[in-house]
Specification:
The chain is of the alpha+beta class. It has helices at residues 2-27, 65-80, 106-109, 111-116, 121-140, 158-171, 182-196, 235-242, 251-265, 273-301, 305-309, 311-321, 328-337, and strands spanning 33-37, 45-50, 56-61, 88-92, 95-99, 204-205, 214-217, 220-223, 230-231, 340-342, 348-350, 361-362, 381-382. The radius of gyration is 23 Å and the shape is globular.
Length: 398
């Protein structure tokens, strides 16, 4: 273990040296400071390098040559289309330097609205600008783009759907203790996948379009972390942004922002709004299943509190979507996760009694209270179902 930690420290040191060398080659002088920045959920590392004259650049240390190639190619292509993305000024190996967009992230600028659920005029203006800019990325950004460089695959396809549905099933659903028939669930998954893939698309799917990946420069949105993008339907990104679990957008604001997006999309061709809304509903469900898998893995297994806190609002969104008549068993399972059942008419009824939870083991020592609610003093622990795995009918934690 110590050798591995030492090797990692040596690698980080060498990468920082590479970034310093790139900075000196580009600006003509070595940086006077190199400050690590908080990165994304990936293993990429970010640094702010500052010169003696006060000029700053962002240094990026990638971990995968193919991922780097995807970002650099898409970034240059988007810039050529007039899309607001950071300009890459120098690159070498797995490292590159890009212009510094500052430190104002849309997610942080929306903190007050997110905390209260009441978004003020300035916050709404920022959101409207962001949604209005999305169609240009999706449509104009796709024109002439070499999708073969996209990482890890060039397009939204059946494998991507399978990966995300299995993410939900294995990293969230199976942890809840809710009994379900895997064959019947897979039958609905297969129908759901066919519907998601029913329409061909030649647009760009950002994949991680959310407020954390939008920087604000002089009040205008600029876009980062699109290296996971690929060819795919436009609905996915809209669902990702407007139905983000912890955003707490009021329904009236969500509808306003959706209309802003649809109006901006019309600049690139006719839009059948009824059809678009029906398709969007499918992708909202798909996105919520994917994020529940993420919250289960990152929160319940890796014990990251921010992801745990996102589970109840995600389930609230799922419950608001039910029922789906074409996927009756999936609807039944999701209703169970949301603490109730649905009548044939789609009326939600709560469970009077809670199912006995499945006992799930969590690896690793614990020196204080058991992660699952019981007492613990280290070693492999088994305990109660985590209180955030399901929600009560009134929206509170079970």
């Amino acid at each position: 273990m110590y050798k591995e930690q030492g090797s990692r420290r040596i690698c980080v040191f060498l990468y920082v040296m590479s970034l310093e060398s790139l900075f000196e080659q580009y600006t003509g002088a070595a940086p006077v400071s190199v400050v690590p920045l908080t990165g994304s959920a990936s293993h990429r590392r970010y640094y702010r390098l500052t010169g003696a004259d006060g000029r700053t650049l962002i240094g990026v240390e990638g971990t995968d040559a193919d991922e780097n190639r995807a970002f650099l190619t898409i970034d240059r292509h988007f810039a050529s289309k007039g899309i607001h993305v950071p300009k890459v000024v120098a690159e070498e190996g797995l490292c590159y330097l890009q212009e510094d967009l500052g430190a104002t992230v849309l997610y942080d600028a929306l903190a007050a609205g997110r905390a209260s659920g009441n978004y003020g005029p300035d916050e709404v203006t920022l959101l409207r600008k962001t949604l209005a800019a999305l169609p240009k990325i999706q449509v104009e950004g796709a024109r002439g783009l070499d999708f073969s460089v996209c990482y890890p695959q060039p397009s939204f396809d059946g494998r991507m759907v399978d990966f995300d549905l299995n993410y939900f099933k294995y990293d969230y659903l199976k942890l809840t203790g809710l009994e379900f028939n895997e064959v019947r669930l897979q039958d609905d998954f297969d129908r759901f996948k066919a519907d998601l893939l029913a329409e061909p698309s030649d647009t760009f799917l950002y994949r991680d379009f959310n407020a954390r990946n939008v920087m604000l420069v002089d009040g205008e949105p600029w876009f980062i972390d699109f290296q996971g993008g690929r060819r795919g339907p436009v609905y996915y990104d809209v669902a990702s942004f407007l139905w983000q679990a912890r955003a707490k957008y009021p329904e009236t604001l969500r509808e306003e922002l959706l209309q802003v997006y649809l109006d901006a999309l019309r600049a690139y061709g006719p839009v059948d709004e009824t059809h678009s809304r029906a398709r969007l509903r499918l992708f909202i469900l798909f996105r919520m299943l994917q994020v529940l898998g993420c919250y289960g893995y990152r929160g319940l297994w890796e014990r990251k509190q921010a992801f745990i806190d996102s589970i109840p609002p995600a389930l609230e969104i799922v419950r608001s979507l039910l029922p789906f008549k074409d996927y009756p068993y999936l609807t039944e399972v999701l209703a169970g996760l949301c603490g109730g059942v649905l009548s044939p008419e789609g009326v939600f009824f709560s469970h009077r009694k809670r199912r006995a939870p499945r006992r799930v083991g969590i690896r690793g020592p614990r020196k204080s209270a058991d992660f699952w609610g019981g007492s613990a003093e280290g070693g492999h622990r088994f305990g109660k179902e985590h209180p955030l795995l399901r929600i009560a009918p009134d929206g509170n934690d079970l």
